[in-house]
Each structure stands twice: as structure tokens, then as C-alpha cells.
Amino acid sequence: MDYPYSNFYEFLAAQAKKRRRKVALFVDDEKITYGEVLEKVDRLAAFFSQRGIKEGDKVALFLRNSPEFIYAVFAISKIGAIVVPVNTFLKEEELSYILKDSESTALVASMVHEEVVNRSNAQVQCELVLWEGEAPKTDEKNVGFEEALASTADVPHVSRSLEDTAVLIYTSGTTGKPKGAMLSNKNLLSNIEFARKLIKVKPKDRVIVFLPMFHSFTFTVGVIMPLYVGGSMVIIKSLQPFTNIFKQTLTKRVTLFFGIPSVYNALAKAKLPWYFMWFNNIRAFISGAAALQPKTLDAMAKKFKRAKLLEGYGLSEASPVVCVNTLKKQKAGSVGTAQYDYQIKIVDDEMNELPFGQIGDIIVKGDHVMQGYFNRPEATSETIVNGWLLTGDMGYLDDEGFLFIVDRKKDLIISKGINIYPREIEEVIDLFEGVAASAVIGIRDEKSGEVPVAYIELEEEADGYDEASLKEHMKKHLANYKVPRQIHIIEELPKNATGKVLKRVLKEKLKNA
């Protein structure tokens, strides 16, 4: 790929020069132009520099969705430091772990997270805590954003190269402790270019950002990409009330809607007013983070005739987008195809490439593959082999290069030597009336080695759930050995911030039952 810019600050400055008066950010009733964004970024960069933050330092962001998140990212880029976006759903012990592990010297946090921040190690680990909103206390270490933006000094742009680390993003930690994936400027700019070309993103596009900005999917395609192309971003600070998302989508004339399966499940069922259906400007819905249910794809296609719902696939270690269905061609059940300089292979345990249609390990290669895990050379060498990223997922490619995900390798259930893929069972269960979502895990069994167990979350309006009928439904669609031995109804499946089910929590629950 060709790269017209080497880092984030370069393209923001270029867009601000070209589109100074254009609105870059919509926040409720406020409009913030490119010129205003750049001015605040420059002021914040000067403040960081005055406080001793220098090239290569780590600055952690524990921020809600806000313009301050944007200003911080680009100010950090200007001084050559490294952004560490942190999941704001974490508790103080988890935040403390990431601040220490990343060696962050500064933290930018929202006042709504004051309690967690102050119970963490932030005041000891970090030399500076910058608060979005009024600082809870004013001293040498704690500063409010208004004071920081009052800086009138100017600092030169530290021009970091494409190969330099720009972001340290922590994996969700669905197993074990989170690891910091080192993403270079090239990794992220490559991913932005890939997504831009596939979705055909133009300066006239407006992207709505209601998913957490700290997540790799939102960070790359929701936060960075719109500003890279000279488009606009509609920032939603809170998911409550959910109707505000529809209101902002309509009134701000949003064209690109980035969501996760739970959002599309809700959208497919929602009774939207006729004027929303008639006047919305959405041309594409993009889904990531977890698998879409077939019934959601069907319902969305029937409901929105003028917009395509494009399912994609990625992981933090790949910046994160690996592939996506295109506007020209979509395949039900597929997460799309890799194009341009990206490659996907399906291999066996010896890394031998498998033919089309055969299930194996998914490995990927391209400029989007991370540099490695921060301070973890062994984990890096296990995950990146000869330039290929081992995703930990299993799937197959069809003869047109479309990827179909089968399951996580670690979730594979082996019963009497036969592979059972939990996702296949979940898709059958999800089709049963009254089921909102399901998760299948494997448990030890003396005779079979492992057997499947299902956890089911029912829809609110589900009436008279019948386990016998569900088992009959499963037996019609699945081999007997795939039918779960146990079925547990659960009020809500445990999920991470982007709706991915935490199966380790379910396994722990079963173990302690």
C-alpha cells in the first residue's frame, strides 16, 4: 500500500488546512470544526510537552466517548508519545495492572470514572492525571482539561515514522491477563486505507460513534478513519437513552453506522417510526466484534432496503480489520474477503495450507499485523510465525476467497475424537423461538472426553420456554453427539465491552456449581 502520511498528526493537520471550517465533530448540539480540533490538539500537545511527556512515553486514556478523547489521541501523536486506550468497564485492579504493565507515565481520565481511577495505582504510577471535566482536586499531579487547553505555547511536531509504535492496545483478556498489542503507524494507516477502500468512504460521509472509543474496532474505523478522509463524526457519549442514537442518526444525517451484533439484534426488532425509515441517510451498517445471527441478517435486510449490512472480522493484533463483506458482494454466514495487500490462509497444525472448504486454523499476513506484544517476546514468537499472525480462530475459505468462521480454537470440543464446533450448535439454538442468545462450552466427561453444555439467554417476551421442544429442534438439525447434555437458562450471558461472550466465566460457573 502507498502511505501519504507517516502518523496521525500529519493527516489531521493536512485535513484542517484543507477543511478548516468544515464540521469534524458533532456532539449533541455542539459543532466542532477541523480548525478548532487542530487548535485544541496543538494546545494539549504543548501542555503535555511542558509536563515532561516526551517521544516514546505511554499516555493511557480512561475516557468516555468525548471530543477530549480525540484531542488526546492526536496531541499524543504530535509529541511522538504512544496512546494506550483502556477499557472503561474495568475495575481498579484491572486498570492498575494495565497502567503498570504498559509503563504509562500519564493518564487522561473522565470524571465519571473518578472512583475507579482514585482506587487504582494511577496517582502512584503516573506523573500526571489529566481530567476530562473539572479535576476532583487541584495539585501538581491532577489537572483539569480547561487548564491544559489554556496553554498558548507551541511545540514542534515530532515526526514519527510509519514503523514507530503509535498505539498500545490491550487484548480483551478472555483468557488470562490482557497483553498490550503494539500497533505501529503503518499498522493503523494500512487498516484505515483497507477499510476506506472497501466501504468507499468519502469526505461527505458521517460516522456515528456510540461504541466505546477505546475498543480497537471503534478506534480505527470510527475515530481515526473519518478524520483521515476529511469526513465527520457524530459522538454519542452514552448509550442511554438508546433512542438518542436513532435521533442523532437521523438529525445529523449519518451515512455509516458501526455496530456490534447486540445493537443489530435490537435494531432488527425495534419499532422505528416511519419518518426514520423514510428519511435516514444510512448507506451501510458495519458489524464487528462478534458473530451475527443469521436471523438478524435476514431481519435487517428486510427492514433496510437502501443500506447494506456488512459483517467483518478482525482482532486487536491486526489493527483490527482482517476482512469484510463488500458493498458489491456479500455472502450470508461469511465475514468477507481480504483484498489489496492482505492475505488469509487456512492451515493445519503443521502450518500446511489446506484446500478450499476445509476447516483449519486462520492465519493472516499484511501491513496490519502488529509489531508484537509489549515486553512479551515469547508470546509474540508464538503468535507471529514467519510474518503470519496466528489468530486462534478456526474457519475455511470458499473458492472466491470468502472467509467463514467456525469457532475459536480454544473453544473446540473434542468428543470421542470428533471435533464439535460450539458456534454451529449456537446457531441452531439461536433459531429457536424465544432464544435471545446462547453459548456452548465443553466439559470433561469420562466416556467421551468432552461433551457440550449450553447456556441460554431468553428474550424478554419469551413465553413458556420448553426444554423438550428445544431438544427436538436441535435433534432435527444436529447429530446426536452435538446435542448439549445440559441446558442452563441464564438471565444474561457474561460479555465483554463489545458483546463477546466470556466463556471462561461460564466454565468457572459450571465448575463451581
Automatic annotation (TrEMBL):
Q: Which UniProt keywords apply?
A: Ligase, Membrane, Transmembrane, Transmembrane helix
Gene Ontology CC terms, in alphabetical order: membrane
Q: Which SUPFAM superfamilies match?
A: Acetyl-CoA synthetase-like
Residues covered by the AMP-binding enzyme C-terminal domain: 424-500
Coiled-coil annotated residue ranges, if any: none
Indicate where this protein resides in the cell.
Membrane
Q: This chain belongs to which protein, by name?
A: Long-chain-fatty-acid--CoA ligase
Pathway per its UniProt entry is: Lipid metabolism; fatty acid beta-oxidation
Q: Which PANTHER family match?
A: LONG-CHAIN-FATTY-ACID--COA LIGASE (PTHR43767:SF8)
Q: Which GO terms describe its molecular function?
A: long-chain fatty acid-CoA ligase activity
According to the record, the segments passing through the membrane are 69-90, 207-229
Q: Which organism does this sequence originate in?
A: Sulfurovum riftiae
Q: What is its main location?
A: membrane
Top-level class of the enzyme under EC nomenclature: ligase
Query: Known EC number(s)?
Result: 6.2.1.3
What residues does the AMP-dependent synthetase/ligase domain cover? 13-374
Q: What's the protein's topology in the membrane?
A: Peripheral membrane protein
